[in-house]
Predict the 3D structure of the following.
Amino acid sequence: MTGATHHSPSEPEPESGDGGRTDPLVRLSLEQLRQRTSMKWRTHPADVLPLWVAEMDVPLAPAVADALHRAVDLGDTGYPHGTAYAEALAGFAAERWKWDGLRVENTAIVPDVMLGIVEILRLVTGPGDAVVVCSPVYPPFYAFLAHDGRDVVEAPLGPDLRVDLATLEDAFTRARRHGRRAAFLMSNPHNPTGVVHTRAELEAIAALARRHGVRVVSDEIHAPLVLPGAVFTPFLDVPGSENGFALTSASKAWNLAGLKAAVAVAGTEAADDLRRMPEEVGHGPSHLGVLAHTAAFRDGADWLDELLLGLDANRSLLGRLIDEHLPGVGYVPPQGTYLAWLDCTGLALHDDGPADGPADGPGIVSDLAGPARMFLDEARVALSSGHVFGTGGAGHVRLNFATSPVILRQALARMGRALAGRAGG
């Protein structure tokens, strides 16, 4: 929990404050960003500062831009082919995470991470089977699983926002009742809390899943975004994970959500399962997406390093701004991702979200309640509403700090003024 003297509500919004930084987060002005036509910048009116959906306010990495320009110049806009994407990911994993166990022959290209997760789960579970998730967690987990006929079983995180092994084991037991097949859909690093699971935690999870006959599917889309002070461990690099799966892409770390392509990776014991994936799934990724993600993993490490420096600085800045403007709001600095999970339960704002989490995944775009609704209506700052992340999410908001320090300062000052106005009223 943070707390400090509240800032004066009459203080004007800052107009500068990048501290001489040169990272990608300080390259684009608010005026330039408002020219974008993506979801982040067009969902809300122009007076709203959008700090919600997972898009970053950065220009393209030069290596990615060059690859795309080259393809366009050549008219290279056909169907994807080959294994260059998986090879680039394997090289990145070996260099970045010291993991040399990624075998290209045990991979498949899928349209994106979430659709790949659905296809993997179809290989190892059926309608009516159970999938365990650790709430609060990425809202599409609920929506995609429910729409595919799977029973979502929650294993809420502990008070420290980390996986609680006893709770997880109880969920595994419930998931396996009556002989059902079961899987554990893990967020690694965890979205929305930014927790980076330790190797010891992952080893314990793998052992627990083995003991209960639960297949693990690890969403590792935020893996390149681990910040100083933490170390990412690929799930498939720990003992006991051999029958598991991992899915990742460059979309979060290099801001490529609009260029669809991801990689599914099977553990050595799961390779035969992956080979059963229907051929047509591989027709979904974009060729330009494959080229862009390949370039990011192969040639974008220097740009990523600059980005991580900026995110680390913003992580610290956000803590100071919360102390200054939002006393009573809890903030545990994330170890990874560019997402901050803010505990607003102390603000006593009414939250209309379901206390036991979403049954079928309410829309992360339109379904706002409690503090997120108040900050949008009264501060003109768009955040993600906590209740859509499931049990443990009500009364919280998720804030995307992958923006310039100028915008971050403006947004927190607005939020502070809105709270001060309520207190004064």
Notes: Residues 206 and 240 are 5 Å apart (CA to CA). The chain has 13 helices and 13 strands.
